[in-house]
Amino acid sequence: MPPNGQSLQISTLTNLMGGAPWRLELLHDLPYDLLIWVTRGQGRALLQGHRRGISTHNLLWIPAGTLFGLDLGKQSNVLALSLPAGNGLGFPPEHCLLRVRDVQAQSEVTGRLESMARELQSASPFGEEAARAHAALLSVWFRRFLLDAPSDPRPTAALRLVRAFCAQVAREYKGGKPMADYAQDLGVTPTHLSRVCKQVSDLTAADIITQRTLHAAREKVEFSSMPFQVIAADLGFGSAAYFTRFLQNHTSQSPTALRRTHVS
């Protein structure tokens, strides 16, 4: 379920970041579905290991469990729809990036999202039900757009391998699993896996694991009061001291200093 407890939520770029740009930029996955509509700006997205350029009037569909990172410029604006996984609204099961060039289609997407926001923010009876109806209509638009859009090229062997690796990382990063074990599970050597990840995503396999772990670590350190040793154990670190070194190496700050940033 989206983080505010509603079955649907409309957010801005500022809401998604929550005062911490790394929350979008570092690779992570979510337990709910996310649709991001870029109304202004440009940047880069990494979706299941595939690096893509994004710009104004691009729409990203990110189902629950998809490993992704999003780097948008400071002048960018987005409208984002969060909705529960398995919501029954008909959105596609796989992540995708749509480039919407038709002005009427652009207006329809923006209008649906703004209508949802108005319903969710109002005190009108059945507001969330009305918002869900708009979401269902947006799903119909989405599927019609996909029918008319040119088919994506068949994924290369390299892209299929990176996607499989990212799916594993999203499921198993908490156990502190070494990269070599991921490679073994995928039937390739660590060297090959890392080389292919670098080719497709511009990150090594180790970088991808590190980013997902770092996102989880910072989320728990900066936005919860969970004891550091509990966080360390939950993320598969052998000791709290090793966890502290990990954070210092990647943020130049201790867990205590990071927590002071957001937790009063």
Helical residues, percent: 40-55%
CATH class of the largest domain: Mainly Beta
Please state the structural category.
alpha+beta
Distance between the termini: 26 Å
| Low-pLDDT residue spans | none
Number of domains: 2
Strand content: 15-25%
Summarize this structure briefly.
With 264 residues, the protein is α+β, with helices and mostly antiparallel strands. It folds into two domains: 140 residues, Regulatory protein AraC (Jelly Rolls); 106 residues, Homeodomain-like (Arc Repressor Mutant, subunit A, Orthogonal Bundle), CATH 1.10.10.60. Strand 3 and strand 4 form a beta hairpin.
Question: Would you write up a description of this structure?
Answer:
This protein is α+β, with helices and mostly antiparallel strands and 264 residues long. The chain folds into 2 domains: 9-148, Jelly Rolls, CATH 2.60.120.280; 157-262, Homeodomain-like (Arc Repressor Mutant, subunit A). Helix content is 50%, strand content 17%. A hairpin with a 2-residue loop joins β3 and β4. The two termini are 26 Å apart.
